[in-house]
């Protein structure tokens, strides 16, 4: 297997895999604005590859863009089906090449996730896991129930709670987490038990407001990954956070792997990110709120970095002038809105951290001030 790390590896590995498909491509799409992916699917059809696209029935207000994508793919000979609406959301991200290679993604096919965010993908060739992923794809495409037959493909709501609980319980020395927003009480309690037992638990990401104190840090770039690294020997990577909704009411897909080279690379990336992440300070927020509003606004503004987002979007818009794939302004606009929303959210958190540190005279590292 191999590990894809974003934003360093970019979109090219995905395009290479799609271009090298010889017999079939099965792709699950939740969110999309990368015309290169669409073009690669169309080109695959043109060279005789059977391409099946399973597209989410909704993705938070952008259904029109998904429906337009469906129409374009159908026009070019792609077999298109839509997920059912029995679950709150179909949020999994994967594609399968020739029924032999599974690409399990933590990111969507978007500029924001691939180019501007920390995320990962696992390329799996284990025949048991790939066969399980094919069964899942076919079950969801035909809207029939899916039953799990292997613990290494983690599927919400089928087996995710059980397998992730077992995965975390198996930790002896260390648990490193990339977590979008942990809030499930059972997993919070389990992590606290591990900390009490002397396990090194560290979390990059966010947590629910009522979970209490956990060793959390906020990444300096946008995070779009859910992963758990155990004892430097095993990794869970997927689309589900440790939240009740994502474990029990949505289609989420993850994988557990033990490939030593991939695990080592991911641990190294985490350690680098942790060293450069900012601790979240929450116990002095009340005194921080006494700071004048004008000063608050200045601190927030200092943490907002919108120029890279705008530059990336402009580059992609210009690229469309040399392609035959229709330019979708609404899709790019949605990407920009999400980027700005995340920038502002993180800027507010960082501003509160700065204000809290000021309130208790905690020193700030110079590299964290710009």
What report would you give on this structure?
The protein is an alpha/beta fold. The chain has three domains: 2-150, 2-Layer Sandwich (Endonuclease, Chain A); 154-274, Endonuclease Chain A (Endonuclease, Chain A); 285-368. Helices cover 42% and strands 23% of the residues. Strands 5, 9, 10, 11, 12, 14, 15, 16 and 17 form a nine-stranded mixed β-sheet that branches. α1 runs parallel beside α2, α11 (293-303) packs across α13 and α12 runs antiparallel to α13. The protein is globular. The model is unreliable at 282-290 and 359-370 (pLDDT under 50).
Write the topology of this structure.
Elements: E1 2-6, H1 12-19, E2 24-29, H2 35-46, E3 50-55, H3 63-75, E4 79-82, E5 89-90, E6 94-97, E7 101-105, H4 111-115, E8 117-124, H5 127-141, E9 153-156, H6 160-169, E10 174-182, H7 185-196, E11 200-207, E12 216-218, E13 222-223, E14 226-230, E15 234-238, H8 244-248, E16 250-257, H9 260-276, E17 278-279, H10 285-288, H11 293-303, H12 307-319, H13 329-359
Parallel strand pairs: 2-3, 3-4, 5-16, 8-13, 10-11, 11-12
Antiparallel strand pairs: 1-8, 2-6, 6-7, 7-8, 9-16, 10-14, 12-17, 14-15, 15-16
Helix pairs in contact: 1-2, 11-13, 12-13
What are the salient characteristics of this protein?
23% strand; 13 helices; 9-stranded mixed beta sheet; 8-stranded mixed beta sheet; 3 domains; Endonuclease, Chain A; 370 residues; alpha/beta; disordered C terminus
